[in-house]
């Protein structure tokens, strides 16, 4: 168990046995959580910085405004967002506002990259309150840029949400979860091997929450709102508490759910967000609430590819392993003036209805020996239009995962509703709301319904496993 004293995570079986042996949590959760500042300028500057993290790890970081994660953007619906993006990192980049519905030239299409100088963003916030985020989107190098630190929250509020009086201020915590690899000399490094590029994506064995390894945070015994973002390149988490306490899911990628949903676990794939309420006054023992990623199974899609991905995913704990994420240390004061009285109806949603869909598009996700992960048999090409859509049309998209690894599929310029998933996995609580990214496990067919209301132009859709995306698992959609 020497690893733990150095702050290292261990193989899942080791973690479990240590915890069973009564290990002190303060050995695992050694550093206080940090919360990024709110962006209070109209400049976002990406630069290279050498960082020391938790006094022992080094990272050749890329940061927005010198912050890890980037500063949190907070806007209200109806406001105009203006920011000047400066690229000082010495390679191509461009910012995508994930989940935001913006004009095509504001969306961070990889064709709009700049290798130096600046790019002006200026758009009106015209969508539901929710937890969105921003990150770079250059073709082939999104993975390393996000991994090295370029990602931040973009939080939108509106009147409907404010009327709910959800926990705010100190009681609302945006938390971005990211796994990292650290070598023997303490360097956080990005160097995917061929199998990682081809199969699993880059999986690390150390967890950072808001840039801090397995942090702790002192909380009061009362409800908190946690805005969870899976900002990892490839790792899926099954969000849970160590003691299996239940929590309430109130929001998803595209804001508040129609109704709150209680659960004890929640899958969160790269790119996805979950807005949850946790009542720390209730049910946690020893004044401690350990947020973990619980084991889950990835369906094997059989065949040679399935076996190969098993073999090739070696080196890091595989998808579905158990991980400690962070600890909430629960204090004693009770601030009884702040309890949340949650209505049964959280928000009004007007999902498109199936009868109005003008067509169904099949989006086949394949793994081919020579090319790697493809969408409908092809790799990304910068200007080739793969799907042409008439503005205003409602369509059903069916994602069909024929490969042996999970693919979290993200469509720009829209929010959609998940309709169904074949096999034995039901829709999960976040899928009762608006989504922009949906997890498609091996062998699954997932149908989503979407209305293409955005401005005419070129946008992308892609797998949000960033190694898959960088290897070309992306395509263009044009709204005409
Ligand atoms: Cu968060 Cu096109 O991605
Ligand atoms: Cu993928």
UniProtKB/TrEMBL annotation:
One of its GO terms (molecular function) is oxidoreductase activity. Keywords: Metal-binding, Oxidoreductase. Residues 49-160, 223-282, 369-478 form the Plastocyanin-like domain. The keyword Metal-binding applies. Pfam families: Cu-oxidase, Cu-oxidase_2, Cu-oxidase_3. Signal peptide: none annotated. This is Bilirubin oxidase. It comes from Fodinibius salipaludis. The lineage of its organism: Bacteria, Pseudomonadati, Balneolota, Balneolia, Balneolales.
């Amino acid at each position: 168990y020497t690893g733990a004293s150095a702050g290292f995570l261990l193989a899942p079986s080791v973690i479990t046995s240590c915890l069973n042996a009564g290990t002190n949590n303060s050995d695992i959760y050694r550093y206080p959580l940090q919360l990024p500042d709110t962006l209070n300028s109209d400049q976002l500057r990406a630069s290279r910085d050498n960082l020391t993290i938790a006094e022992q790890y080094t990272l050749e970081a890329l940061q927005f405004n010198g912050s890890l994660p980037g500063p949190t953007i907070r806007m209200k619906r109806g406001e105009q967002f203006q920011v000047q993006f400066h690229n000082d990192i010495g390679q191509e980049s461009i910012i995508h506002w994930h989940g935001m519905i913006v004009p095509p030239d504001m969306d961070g299409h990889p064709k709009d990259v700049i290798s130096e100088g600046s790019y002006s963003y200026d758009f009106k916030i015209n969508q539901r309150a929710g937890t969105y985020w921003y990150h770079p989107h250059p073709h082939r190098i999104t993975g390393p840029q996000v991994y090295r630190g370029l990602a931040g929250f973009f939080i939108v509020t509106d009147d409907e949400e404010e009327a709910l009086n959800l926990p705010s201020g100190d009681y609302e915590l945006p938390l971005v979860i990211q796994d990292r690899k650290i070598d023997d000399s303490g360097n956080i490094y990005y160097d995917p091997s061929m199998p990682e590029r081809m199969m699993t994506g880059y999986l690390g064995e150390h967890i950072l929450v808001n840039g801090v390894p397995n942090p702790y945070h002192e909380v009061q015994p009362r409800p908190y709102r946690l805005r969870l973002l899976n900002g990892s390149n490839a790792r899926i988490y099954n969000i849970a508490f160590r003691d299996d306490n239940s929590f309430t899911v109130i929001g998803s990628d595209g804001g508040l759910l129609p109704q709150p949903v209680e659960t004890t676990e929640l899958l969160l794939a790269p790119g996805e967000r979950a807005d949850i309420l946790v009542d720390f006054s209730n049910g946690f023992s020893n004044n401690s609430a350990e947020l973990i990623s619980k084991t889950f199974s990835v369906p094997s899609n059989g065949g040679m590819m399935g076996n190969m991905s098993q073999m090739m995913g070696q080196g890091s704990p595989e998808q579905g392993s158990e991980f400690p994420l962070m600890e909430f240390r629960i204090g004693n004061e009770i601030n009884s003036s702040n309890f949340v009285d949650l209505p049964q109806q959280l928000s009004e949603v007007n999902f498109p209805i199936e009868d109005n869909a003008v067509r169904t598009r099949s989006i086949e996700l394949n793994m081919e020996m020579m090319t790697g992960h493809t969408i409908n048999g092809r790799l990304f090409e910068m200007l080739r239009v793969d799907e042409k859509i008439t503005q205003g049309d409602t369509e059903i998209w069916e994602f069909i995962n024929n490969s042996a690894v999970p693919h979290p599929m993200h469509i720009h310029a829209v929010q959609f509703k998940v309709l169904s998933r074949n096999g034995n996995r039901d829709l999960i609580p976040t899928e009762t709301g608006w989504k922009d990214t949906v997890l498609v496990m091996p062998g699954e067919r997932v149908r989503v319904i979407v209305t293409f209301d955005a401005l005419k132009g070129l946008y992308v859709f892609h797998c949000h496993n960033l190694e898959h995306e960088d290897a070309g698992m992306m395509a263009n959609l044009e709204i005409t």
